[in-house]
Write a structure and sequence with these properties.
The chain has 380 residues and is an alpha/beta fold. The protein contains eleven helices and 17 strands.
Length: 380
């Protein structure tokens, strides 16, 4: 293969805002073959200085220098949300692809303008919503699509997040810089559930302010409806609270179906407990879907107990089961892999325009639209 063949061309990365997370992400991006960290701008942090030295990258004084650097192909933006629009538009106008941390922008109007410019110039404008690259996401999607546990009925996501690293002066609490919890953080989970059930509609939302604080909003919740009269309407509750000591930071989501439920743990789901009643065929399908899962039999079912009934339906099952899966997975290692997969997916689209991507420009905009509606309803 010739050195200048498309899949051999080196892709240069320029980073705006190299902090601790920027370093973590770039370390994963650079594991994609034929990529190089070219330049860093927008940060004088120790992390930025060390990273530039480690990878032999230029430490530039201005963003203009970075976006106009001839060896930069992709600009990765890891700055607070209020800077995304201005910095992304600068990069796009300079002809650079853009990957930015969530959210895409502070509001959908800015986001739509960013996507329109990217489309006009044939460039990527992608938000790092890497949850869809999680193998657990794909397994749950398969279970839903194949109706292995019957119809989906209800779900929730509860995020009890630590705030020890968020001082009262941190930009996270300033709505003019973060957009609020739904916009800064909730987009990940709105996008995840959209991937499972299609586009949702926010029906209600609330926000709670911390007592005796300077208007610190530390808890939000929303109810989102999926489906329609034909497919069946389903409600999912989303709660985010930034109130915990870091040692108690924890996340849980549950999906309830006609014949069982699934509980997923961690904000990037690594561990699963599935409880259900199942016939032999379903048990086999579940064990194929979750290879190596620990299977425990809660009860055998037969005789006068059959058929089982629920929602005015009758069905047969031979056992009540509990499956535990993914408990040996190291969360931080999985997070690293998702970043690698996301970046490789986008680089493939640069080499081969039109190729299918799990995350596209639309994900960033639609998740922002849902978050914006939830934020607006919470303040009514």
């Amino acid at each position: 293969m010739e050195a200048d063949a498309p899949n051999e061309r080196e892709i240069g990365i320029g980073v705006i805002g190299m902090g601790g997370f920027g370093l973590f992400a770039v370390q994963q991006f650079l594991q994609t073959p034929h990529t190089k960290l070219v330049a860093i701008a927008g940060s004088k942090r120790e992390e930025a200085i060390r990273t530039a030295k480690r990878f032999g990258a230029d430490q530039l004084e201005s963003l203009d220098e970075l976006v106009n650097h001839p060896d930069v192909d992709i600009v990765y933006i890891a700055t607070p949300p209020f800077l995304h629009y201005e910095q992304a538009m600068l990069a796009l106008n300079a002809g650079k692809h853009v990957i930015c941390e969530k959210p895409l922008a502070m509001n959908p109007e800015e986001g739509a303008e960013m996507l329109a410019l990217a489309k006009e110039k044939g460039l990527l404008m992608v938000t790092n919503l890497m949850q869809r690259y999680n193998p657990m996401f794909a397994r749950i999607k398969h279970l839903i699509d194949k109706n292995l546990l019957g119809d989906f009925l209800h779900g929730y996501f509860e995020n009890y997040a630590g705030d020890e690293g968020l001082s009262p002066e941190h930009w996270f609490w300033d709505r003019s810089k973060s957009g609020g919890i739904f916009i800064e953080h909730g987009v990940h989970f709105f996008d995840m559930f959209d991937g499972w059930f299609g586009k949702g509609t926010v029906k209600a939302a609330q926000v709670i302010k911390r007592p005796n604080s300077n208007d610190v909003e530390d808890q939000v919740q929303a109810i989102v409806e999926y489906g329609d009269d034909e497919t069946g309407r389903k409600l999912v509750n989303f709660y985010h609270g930034f109130t915990q000591t870091g040692r108690m930071d924890r996340q849980e989501m549950r999906l309830v179906f006609e014949r069982g439920d699934i509980t997923l743990f961690e904000w990037v789901p690594t561990r699963m407990v599935l409880r259900c009643v199942a016939d032999e065929e379903t048990t086999r399908s579940l064990m194929d879907l979750f290879p190596g899962a620990q299977l425990d039999v809660t009860a055998n079912i037969g005789g006068k107990d059959l058929p089982l009934r629920g929602r005015h339906k009758e069905f047969n099952a031979y056992q009540q089961l509990e499956l535990r899966f993914g408990f040996g997975q190291e969360k931080q290692h999985l997070y690293s892999e998702l970043l690698r997969l996301m970046f490789r997916d986008q680089v493939s689209a640069i080499h081969y325009p039109g190729t299918h991507r799990l995350i596209t420009e639309d994900n960033g905009l639609h998740s922002l639209q849902i978050a914006t509606v939830a934020d607006r309803l919470a303040r009514q």
